[in-house]
Structures are given as C-alpha cells and as structure tokens.
C-alpha cells in the first residue's frame, strides 16, 4: 500500500516515510469511524496497524521506553521524510512493546503522544 501511494506522488515528494505515515493515519481514521470499522471489519486488523511515526511519537516512545526500563535499542529520530522501512520497523517494535504493557494496540499510541502527554510527563521530572 505504501509503495502504491509513493508511485502516485509527485517525483519530489516520493518519500517512503511520509507515504507510510499518510497510510497509517488513513487506516487509523477509518478504524476510528464506527461506520467504516463495522462495514469493513477493521477491528480484525487493529492489532497489525502501526502507530503513525513523527517526532512527537518518537519522543513519546523514547520517554516511555526509558520509564519502563525496556531493553530496546531505539534508533536516533531524524525526520519523517528520512524514515526507511528498517528504521520504521525498529520504532514499531518499541511501540508494540509499550502498547502491550498498556493493554492497547500500538496504533492508539498516536493519540497519546500527538496530544503531548510525553511533554507533560517530562515537565514533572
């Protein structure tokens, strides 16, 4: 799906990372829509959905991984545009571990991190 989107983007905008983020946001929004979720049974694929990655999510994942003493190696975050499938997989593994600890699927972490919960946690320390 990411590859198909990249092919349809203008040549100067064909970045795997941003295309993957767009796909993940689209799928998440479909899953959050009751009518779409029921019509296409999106609840069946929720466990495989990815958290859309950006600097806010990366900061939240890093914070939560450190707080939980997870023995996971996080790559240095650069940019969404610079994201590769390999880097994305590393971040998604961390997201999966954090989400499992919270009893949710990783796709839902975006709501927490994008709303700045990690910034509030850092301000308390």
Structure report:
This protein has helices spanning 2-8, 16-32, 34-40, 55-67, 85-102, 109-114, 117-124. It is mostly helical. The mean pLDDT is 91.
What's the domain count? Answer: 1
Number of discrete helical segments: 7
As an assembly, this protein is single chain
Strand content bin = under 5%
Shape: globular
What letter string, H or E per element, gives the SSE order?
HHHHHHH
How many distinct beta strands? Answer: 0
Rg over C-alpha atoms, rounded to the nearest angstrom: 15 Å
**Structural class per helix/strand content?**
mainly alpha
Which whole number gives the mean pLDDT? 91
Low-confidence stretches are none
Give the biggest beta sheet. Answer: none
End-to-end separation: 41 Å
Helical percentage: 55-70%
Keywords:
125 residues; mainly alpha; 61% helix; globular
Could you write a compact summary of the structure shown?
The protein is built from 7 helices and no strands. By secondary structure, the chain is mainly α.
Secondary structure elements and their pairing?
Elements: H1 2-8, H2 16-32, H3 34-40, H4 55-67, H5 85-102, H6 109-114, H7 117-124
Helix pairs in contact: 1-2, 4-5, 4-7
